Amino acid sequence: LHAIARPKDLAGLRIAVTAGPTQEPLDPVRYLTNHSTGKMGYALARAAAMRGADVTLIHGETALQPVKFTTDVPVTTAQQMYEAVTSRFEATDVLIMAAAVADYRPAAVANDKIKKKDGDMSIPLERTPDILGTIGPKKTHQFLCGFSMETRDLVENSSAKLTKKNLDMVVANNLKVAGAGFGVDTNVVTLITPDGTRELPLMSKADVADAILDEILKRRSQ
Ligand code: CTP
Ligand code: CA
Predict the structure, then answer these.
(1) Residue 78: which of 70, 86, 68, 88 has the closest Cα?
(2) Which of 96, 142, 147 to mutate to test the pocket of ligand 1 (most atoms within 8 A of CB)?
(3) How far is CA 23 from the centre of its chain?
(4) Of all atoms in ligand 1, which is nearest to the CA of residue 131?
(5) CB under 8 A, 24+ apart: contacts of 148-153
(6) Which intervals hold domain DNA/pantothenate metabolism flavoprotein C-terminal (predicted)?
């Protein structure tokens, strides 16, 4: 009923959403990752599809069911997510990067399982491609929405990402607020745009998704 009653106010819009963590392999049995479950990104993909958008959901490994009426693009690593986003970028009107992309990966991936030895173990790391940081400066018609997770100086740090990555909006999360962050069904976010900041109250991730899409729609039609 919810879906039927929804106005199709995003019809004709091509929206790419990234969600979930990336996994960066070390050897055939181990990888580096983070606590992202994908819930916020999936909620965005679901809300956008219900509102009539043409949605592509590019996601890392999650325990969530695919979202109906979206194009499902599973990836594993930051490099694969980079390729999935950039290859579709020209045919994207709105990119929402809700994924928690690993910033580092093991510099070398061992072909065989690494055996334990005596003494210290350290793993050389290298940077992964910064997806938004690479495409932000090259955008043409696209609206770019990033996410930012911080444990301190939320607005200052997130506003810096808006400018640095040439984004149109940043959805900022304070991990230290109750009801926000990993795994839960609610979120507390601040929407940051070049015009200022707007803090939203504690809401379900479904309602946060609709509020984000409302703001994007409003800003695109200005
Ligand atoms: N992001 C990205 N590619 C990366 C890392 C992050 O596109 N390799 C995107 C995220 O999906 C998010 C935004 O950039 O939408 C901000 O991510 P965040 O981790 O908060 O910022 P970083 O620039 O990685 O800075 P830091 O982790 O040092 O705070
Ligand atoms: Ca990061």
Answers:
(1) 86
(2) 147
(3) 14
(4) 7
(5) 148/172, 148/173, 148/192, 149/100, 149/173, 149/175, 149/181, 150/174, 150/175, 151/175, 151/176, 152/176
(6) 10-218
Question: Which pLDDT does position 57 carry in this prediction?
Answer: 98
Q: Name the amino acid, one letter, at 155.
A: V
Distance CA 115, CA 117 (A): 6
Contact 108, 25 (CB under 8 A): no
CA dist list (Å): 200 to 1, 52, 197, 215: 26, 24, 10, 12
Interacting residues of 139 by C-beta distance below 8 A, sequence separation 6+: 166
On the 0-12 / 13-18 / 19+ scale of CB atoms within 10 A, 200 is: middle
What's the CA-to-centroid distance between 168 and ligand 1, angstroms? 15
Q: Predicted ipTM? A: 0.98
Roughly how many angstroms between the first and final C-alpha of the chain, as a whole number?
31
> Known catalytic residue: 157?
no
pLDDT in tens, 181-212: 888 899 999 999 999 999 999 999 999 999 99
Q: Is 143 annotated as a binding residue?
A: no
- Residue ranges around ligand 1 (CB below 6 Å): 78, 97, 99, 101, 103, 128-132, 146-149, 161
**What residue type is assigned to position 84 of the chain?**
A
